[in-house]
Structure formats: C-alpha cells, structure tokens
Automatic annotation (TrEMBL):
Family, similarity comment: Belongs to the serine/threonine dehydratase family.
Protein name per UniProt: Hydroxyectoine utilization dehydratase EutB
The UniProt record lists the keyword Lyase: yes
Gene Ontology MF terms in the entry: L-serine ammonia-lyase activity; pyridoxal phosphate binding; threonine deaminase activity
Single GO BP term: isoleucine biosynthetic process
Ranges for domain Tryptophan synthase beta chain-like PALP: 20-310
Organism: Rhizobium fredii
Names of the cofactor(s): pyridoxal 5'-phosphate
Domain of life the protein comes from: Bacteria
Key words, A-Z: Lyase, Pyridoxal phosphate
Length: 337
C-alpha cells in the first residue's frame, strides 16, 4: 500500500472551515456552447471571480491564518508570478500583517502595480522565478520574514483544495475535471479533494507547451528544470523547484494526464470565454476551455467541470487577442497581421 499523501481530505476540510468568510464561494455554471461541442454537459467553475481575481487567495489565506500571532507580526514573503503575490498581499493585509513580494522581470507591469496598490513591498529581481526565490531566501535569513511559497507548501495546497471541495458539492457526479497546472498546488489540492469524494473522477492537468515543468518532471520521474519563455499563460510560468516536497509527488499520483497547449490554442480559449461566455479570462485561466476547443480531451462521459482559474490579464493584451492576434510573445519575426 502506498504511503499517505502529505495533504489529506481532512486538511482540506479544515482549510475550508478556516477560510470561509474570507474567500468567495464562486459560481459553477453550465456552458451551452461547450456542452454542444462536446456532446456532454460542460460546466465552468468561475474562480476568476474570486477576490483578487484568482483562486490563489484560498491558499494564501489558509497559510496566513495558520501562522501564530508572532509570525504574522514579522510579516510574510513570497516569490510570485503575480496572482500569488496579489493574494498574499490581500490576505496579509486582511489579517493585519505585511507581505513582501519578490518577482522576476518577466512579470507583466499590470500585476506589479496591482500588488503595490494592495500594500505589499514589491522587489523585482532576476529573469526567472528561481532567481526571485533566491531573494526570498536571503530576506528570510536576514530579516526573519515568514515564507509562504506559491505552491509547494501544505497549507497552500490545502487552501487550493477547498476549490475541489466546492466543485464536488456543486456537481457531485462529475466525471472529469480540467485544471490548469504550473507548480501544481492547485492540481494537487483539487485532485486530493475530488478523488477523496469521487474516486472515479478523471483529473486532467493543462499547461502551455512553452515551459511545461510539471509535465516534463512527471515524465522524467523527478523534478526537472525547463527553459522559461513568455506565454499568454504567464501565470503558468516558472519551474516546480528541484527540491519539490509536495506537489510533484501529489500530481504524479493524483493527476491522470497533463495536456500541452500552443499559444494559438490558448488565445482561442480566451476568445471563446469572451465571445461565448462573456467572461474576461487570462491565458492561464483559459487552458481548460482551450483544450476542449482543440479536441485534446478524450470525452468519456459527462458532466465535465472546467476550472477557470484567473482573470488578471493586461487589458491591452486582452484586446489584441480578441482582435485575432494569436502569439503576442513570438520571439523571432515581429507580427505582421
Ligand atoms: C497560479 C495559477 C495557476 C497554476 O497554479 P499552480 O498551483 O501553480 O499549479 C493557474 N491559473 C492561474 C490564474 C494562476 O494564478
């Protein structure tokens, strides 16, 4: 028998009790267009309507509420591609603490200024999340700040798992769940919750071709580094950490498959969300819709639940994608329309 996973359904239930009242219970709605396309009911979990614009508030709030008063007074710190930083800034402020947020130069300006507005101390260093993380470790050692990592942390995974609990309550007979994957905190948490309640549910991870760290790691059987490139799904950037403690193992055991998407497919997902569902969704949040549109999900029955994970996209970029641009971050030739 395999050993117990590091985050259990009991941990996730405790997190749900702890954070209720601090986070929104987001709607689960049917998608007429995707249901027609797939031939089975397809529902969207509108988690981009969460306070701060992504599910990251669940994990960050659970982590901050799990600290002692003394730890909270010292302040919290994280490296973040944006949404975790935003969530941690909000969660810290709500509990009378202060967040220091370190991020790489690849993070879009709209996310940086938003985190500053939420009262966090923002530090920009390096060209990758790994370099931003080195700055976090320096400040933890020198100033005694308490690290709340974006994904590889038990309280964060349990907090993200509360999204899975909500989904099973709202749609008890789901057959498949589509979940965006980067560091794997969301996928690990929701898979732990959903498989505890509905073991037959297939949990399918989605990420971009352009830097699929978890997929490459699961394929290799150990955490590996991948090259980072700018993508429409910027919230899915960053590695999983070579010394990953929790999410690599949980995703390896609980996530049935990880599917990769091109920039054009992600752009089509964002356009579908806007034109068919009337929702502004960032690239990372649109990968589930993108995978269904691209025909990359084998339909074995319904209902299918798609997690729409965030909406924090630069509105100028959103407009370009709505106007038909498919790869704004293409590195060679400029786009000639
Ligand atoms: C962080 C994030 C993800 C990926 O979550 P992980 O826990 O890192 O796998 C997906 N979508 C959005 C909008 C995010 O902010």
């Amino acid at each position: 028998m395999r050993s117990k996973l590091p985050v259990t359904i009991e941990d996730i239930e405790a997190a749900a009790r702890r954070i209720s009242g601090c986070v929104l219970r987001t709607p689960l709605v049917g998608s007429a267009s995707l249901s027609k396309l797939c031939g089975v009911p397809v529902c969207l979990k509108l988690e981009h309507h969460q306070t701060t614009g992504s599910f990251k508030l669940r994990g960050a709030t659970n982590a901050v509420l799990s600290l002692s008063a003394e730890e909270r007074a010292r302040g919290v710190i994280a490296a973040s591609t944006g949404n975790h930083g935003r969530a941690l800034a909000h969660a810290a402020k709500a509990e009378g603490s202060v967040a220091t947020i370190c991020m790489s130069r690849l993070v879009p300006e709209n996310k940086v200024s938003e985190i500053r507005r939420l009262g966090a101390d923002v530090r920009i260093t390096g060209n990758s999340q790994d370099e931003a993380q080195e700055e976090v470790e320096r400040l933890v050692a020198e100033n005694g700040l308490v690290m709340v990592p974006p994904f590889d942390h038990a309280a964060v995974v349990a907090g993200q798992g509360t999204l899975g609990l909500e989904i099973v309550e709202q749609m008890p007979d789901l057959t498949a769940l589509l979940v965006p994957v980067s560091g794997g905190g969301l996928a690990a948490g929701v898979a732990a919750a959903v498989k505890a309640r509905q073991p037959a549910t297939r949990v399918i991870g989605l990420t971009m071709e352009r830097g699929a760290a978890m997929q490459a790691s699961v394929a290799a059987g150990r955490p590996v580094l991948v090259e980072e490139h700018q993508s429409l799904a910027d919230s899915l950037g960053g590695g999983i950490g070579l010394d990953n403690h929790l999410t690599f193992r949980m995703c390896s055991e609980l996530v049935d498959d990880i599917i990769l998407l091109t920039e054009a497919e992600i752009a089509a997902g964002m356009r579908h969300a806007y034109t068919q569902e009337r929702e502004v969704v960032e690239g990372a949040g649109a990968v589930g819709i993108a995978a269904l549109l691209a025909g990359k999900i084998k339909i074995t029955g319904g209902p299918i639940v798609v997690i729409v994970s965030g909406r924090n996209v630069d509105m100028g970029l959103h407009l370009r994608v709505m106007n038909g641009e498919t790869d704004p971050f293409r590195e060679e030739a400029a786009w000639h329309g």
